Amino acid sequence: MKITVTTAVNAPLERVWQVWNNPNDIIQWCSPSEEWHTPKSENDLREGGSFTSTMAARDGSASFDFTGVYDQVDLHRFIAYTMEDGRKVEISFENQDGQTVLTETFDAESINPAEMQRAGWQAILDNFKKYTEQQA
């Protein structure tokens, strides 16, 4: 099953792309809630390149690495990658009426309910929108 989340960011496409892919920015926005954070991020944005973002509970109770390898990178337009567990993710960036619409579609995992996964990924995307608009 595929799940899609989306947001419209009030920032130019080039800026949205930069904030999405820059490790120094990723550590600022990549979390679903105030209880979580991303203390470390590495990103080699090219086909065959890899990324790792360490996501951790602020209270120290949990931590995991979110990793993957890029399958396709089309500058300012599209990113596709495969997560460490084999699931696929596609992200499109589109300029619409002065905003940048970012859409992520990902393969659901089988452990957690689809709605919980959608809500978590949407929360991260909402944090991305808020952070990017504050930086613009």
TrEMBL record:
Residues 10-132 form the Activator of Hsp90 ATPase homologue 1/2-like C-terminal domain. It comes from the Bacteria. Gene3D superfamilies: 3.30.530.20. Belongs to the AHA1 family. This is Polyketide cyclase.
